[in-house]
Amino acid sequence: MTAGRARARTTRRKSATRKLDLRTGRTVWQARPAPAIPKARLPTDRMTEVLVIGAGISGALIAEALTDAGLEVLVVDRRGPLAGSTAATTALIQYELDMPIVKLARRIGQARAERLWRRSRLAVEALGDRMQRLRIGAEQVARDTLYLEGSELDRAGLLAEQAARRRAGLETDFLEARDVLRRFGIRRRAALHSSGGFCVEPRRLAAGFLNAALRRGATLCAPAEVTRVQPGRRMVRATTKDGPVIRCRHLVFASGYEMPTAAPTKGQCIRSTWVIATAPQRREPWEGSAMISEAAEPYLYLRTTPDRRIICGGEDEDFADEARRDAKLPEKTATLSRKLAALLPGVDARPAFAWCGSFGTSRNSTPTIGRLPRMPNCYAALGYGGNGITFAMMAAQMLRGLVTGGGDPDLDLVSFRSSRKSR
Question: Which of 143, 157, 191, 399 is 20 to 30 A away from residue 78, measured at CA?
Answer without folding.
Answer: 399
